[in-house]
Design goal:
It contains 7 helices and 6 strands. It is globular. The two termini are 19 Å apart.
Length: 185
């Protein structure tokens, strides 16, 4: 982050949302105010875009009922995550890495072809994620398959990916997402 012109945050949450699970890393200054947790923590939570898409994404637009059900499934998992991490400082930096987040960035940028250079460290404010959700959730699967920036094979997976990202940002009071092209391997 410093090499790209970002100041080092007091607290960082790195998330890699896969198909069946989501990996996370929490990094904090050792002596940050209110921090009694270790400076580095990591783990896996049992929620992923494929599992959520199979349950809540059909071929038509995403219904408000399905959005509420999906959010209802995500929320208890995030509550457990928050209990593991402990106090999350106000200025926590959220970094999303791998396919779910790079797809969100590609859509936000309207890319015709994947561009690592443009996607890596692309920043998306919370309000823009809400606008992306409103647009994509109102489209059918066929319509999403033609949207610039979305690979057709991710037209269903982008729905739970965006909903999960919005839920994380709400839950931890984070106002922007930084997308990383690097993975958590």
């Amino acid at each position: 982050l410093p090499m790209a012109g970002y100041s080092m945050p007091e607290s960082t949450l790195i998330v890699d949302m896969g198909g069946g699970s989501t990996e996370w890393i929490s990094i904090r200054e050792k002596h940050a105010p209110g921090n009694s947790q270790p400076a580095l923590m990591m783990g896996t939570i049992p929620i992923g875009v494929i599992k959520l898409a199979q349950k809540y994404v059909q071929t038509g637009p995403v219904s408000e009922y399905d959005v509420q059900q999906m959010a209802g499934e995500i929320e208890p998992v995030l509550q457990k995550l928050k209990a593991s991490i402990g106090h999350v400082p106000e200025k926590t930096c959220l970094i999303g890495t791998a396919g779910t987040f790079t797809t969100i960035a590609s859509f936000d940028l309207g890319l015709e072809r994947y561009s690592r250079e443009r996607i890596h460290l692309h920043t998306i404010p919370f309000n823009r994620l809400l606008a992306m959700r409103d647009k994509l959730f109102s489209l059918t699967l066929k319509e999403r398959e033609t949207v610039r920036g979305l690979e057709p094979g991710r037209a269903d997976l982008i729905i739970p990916g965006i909903q999960f990202t919005i839920s994380v940002m709400k839950h931890f009071s984070i106002d922007e997402l930084i997308v990383s092209d690097h993975g958590l391997l």
